[in-house]
Design a protein that fits this description.
With 94 residues, the protein is mostly helical. Helix content is 86%, strand content 0%. Helix 1 packs parallel to helix 3 and helix 2 packs antiparallel against helix 3. The protein starts with a helix and ends with a helix.
Length: 94
């Protein structure tokens, strides 16, 4: 029964990542996004994956990996957007 609740948590958290990725991609700006939060979430998903390897892999593990991939994409977009903002600032200074 506990796996159903764990899966529910991962699916519901996972729903937000495609939206965040889309917004990050389109905005081309960092806005109020926190890279510390993104790294904390990555560490959390990695911890969940390590727990699965220690205590036994199951179908829920796949959702940890899916969410980890999505938050990693969003983190990559954070750094892309940071670079875009820096380039725009440099171009405006000229």
């Amino acid at each position: 029964m506990h796996k159903i609740f764990e899966l529910g948590m991962l699916v519901l958290f996972g729903i937000s990542w495609p939206v965040s990725i889309y917004k990050s991609y389109k905005a081309r700006a960092v806005g109020s996004k926190s890279v510390i939060f993104l790294f904390a979430v990555i560490v959390g998903y990695i911890s969940g994956i390590v727990n699965k390897f220690i205590n036994g892999l199951d179908y829920v593990t796949v959702f940890y990996f899916i969410n980890l991939i999505m938050v990693s994409i969003d983190t990559r977009l954070y750094f892309r957007n940071k670079k875009i903002e820096a380039n725009n600032a440099n171009n405006n200074d000229k």
